[in-house]
From TrEMBL:
Record-given protein name: Choline/carnitine acyltransferase domain-containing protein
Source taxonomy: Eukaryota, Metazoa, Chordata, Craniata, Vertebrata
Family classification: Belongs to the carnitine/choline acetyltransferase family.
Active site location: 239
Pfam families: Carn_acyltransf
Organism: Amphiprion ocellaris (Clown anemonefish)
Length: 472
């Protein structure tokens, strides 16, 4: 009865900035950027997304809901004063055939199909993107894209002001309807080889701040393809419409398809010039833009990120010893936290509910009495190794049980959040249990983790939920 809090209360009612969303850096395609983009926009999977003809996926022998795939492309989040909304244009009678391209914080509409209905080739895309870059050599001094980094309440007020003007309203509609947004970024701060992935991660996640690429975005779009000047590329994805595991299927498929390049002859069809989207900026909107620049810079400064690669061993070693990689990593994260702060903290891990219709995510609460006993004993010199191993096995067993409860829809927080949402929707007095400090402590996870599996070396990140949270 409850699809998961991420789609409604925790996401659309979330008034924080969207400038930290799911971010994926695809690290092995630097020399094939345009080909990557072409395969991303045009591939048989994208057509199957729209037509809902993808082969059904299974988890533990059970079929999974495939609805999220049809919501990835041509969708957008719209700011609202109390609650945001989602719009889906992919299944309309006239589905969009254009993408939005952003360069130097200027927006362009690029039709990605020829007049005869055939998709643009890699060479044609190159020509069109060069036209866009050549026609936007200077950075826009009044970048509307930065507005999407505002907290949702401020952005909704700015949005209402923007759409009072017909030109602005039409430009916004074009962005919202587009298949996706392609961001052609400028440079990022120079970094050593060791720190490159970290700086690239910040670029894909939030753009680095108003002086770098944060205004070269439209964070309300479900899917943004980001291509850096120095070669970094990745996706920035809104969690509102779909979950990270769903996005990874598209990323895996597109990059796998690049192993078999196809030679497609460009049709002899004249290419129309990409059209720039115009905005009339009033003094009121200009104030919001300056406010957004300042708040975005604070957000960027407040985020600490370090990308590290653990190369000592992988999941094969763990499986050979009949150890659950997920449970093992969760205990390792809790041990690291305990070593740093000398205390345990509530820890959250996302679990999929896609074995249910319209299912999104559930919460696995990884911190238990068993895990606390393990982390407290691990560095105790009085404890024997056999005791520590026994405590680890008990903690992992409890975690696996909790995981099974979560993915089967038996987790506690989903039901509680669902009841709280029902109170909001039916406009009844909020029950005392939801205003009690114990309920807020229950949901106050200082350590938030996600496991997004992929078949290649991707760096996957997710924004923080609140100040002080640590995401891994």
């Amino acid at each position: 009865w409850f699809p998961g809090g991420e789609t409604s209360y925790q996401t659309l009612f979330d008034l924080q900035s969207l400038s930290h969303s799911y971010s994926v850096i695809a690290s092995d395609i630097n020399d094939k950027i345009m080909f990557f983009m072409a395969r991303f926009v045009f591939n048989d999977r994208s057509c199957m997304f729209y037509s809902e003809t993808l082969p059904v996926e299974y988890m533990g022998g059970k079929p999974m809901c495939m609805k999220q795939y049809s919501q990835m492309l041509s969708s957008c989040r719209i700011p609202g004063l109390e609650k945001d909304s989602l719009v889906f244009h992919g299944k309309s009678s006239n589905p969009p055939k254009h993408i939005t391209v952003v360069h130097n914080s200027q927006f362009f509409v690029l039709d990605v199909y020829n007049s005869d209905g055939t998709p643009l080739t890699v060479d044609q895309l190159n020509v069109q993107l060069e036209r866009i870059c050549n026609s936007s050599p200077e950075i826009n001094a009044e970048p509307v894209g930065i507005l999407t980094t505002l907290d949702r309440d401020s952005w909704s007020k700015a949005y209402i002001s923007l759409i009072k003007d017909k030109i602005n309203k039409d430009s916004l509609s074009t962005i919202e309807r587009s298949i996706c947004t392609v961001c052609l970024d400028g440079p990022i701060p120079q970094a050593s080889d060791e720190m490159y992935n970290t700086y690239a991660g910040l670029q894909i996640m939030h753009g680095g701040g108003s002086q770098w690429n944060s205004a070269n975005r439209w964070f309300d779009k479900t899917l943004q393809l980001i291509i850096g000047e120095e070669g970094a590329q990745g996706f920035n994805m809104s969690h509102s419409a779909a979950d990270g595991t769903v996005f990874m299927v598209l990323a895996d498929y597109v990059i796998a398809s690049m192993k078999k390049p196809e030679k497609i002859l460009s049709p002899v069809v004249p290419l129309p010039k990409p059209q720039k989207l115009h905005f009339n900026i009033t003094p009121d909107i200009k104030k919001y833009i300056e406010e957004a620049k300042q708040s975005m810079d604070i957000i960027a400064q407040n985020l600490d990120l370090r990308v590290m690669v653990f190369s000592h061993y992988g999941k094969k070693v763990l499986k050979d010893h009949k150890i659950s990689p997920d449970a093992f990593i969760q205990m390792a994260i809790q041990l690291a936290y305990y070593r740093m702060y000398q205390r345990c903290c509530p820890s959250y891990e996302a679990a999929s509910l896609r074995t249910f219709r319209d299912g999104r995510v559930a919460a696995i609460y990884s911190t238990t009495s068993a895990s606390a006993a393990f982390v407290k004993a691990f560095d105790d010199p009085k404890k024997k190794n056999t005791e520590k191993v026994d405590l680890l096995e008990k903690a992992m067993k409890v975690h696996r049980w909790n995981t099974g409860m979560a993915i089967s829809g038996q987790e506690v927080d989903g039901h509680l959040i669902g009841l709280r949402m029902q109170a909001v929707e039916e406009e009844i007095s909020m029950p005392d249990v939801f205003t009690d400090i114990s309920f807020h402590k229950f949901l106050d996870c200082r350590l938030s983790t996600s496991q997004v599996r992929n078949n290649r070396f991707y760096l996957v990140m997710f924004r923080f939920n609140q100040p002080g949270s640590n995401h891994m």
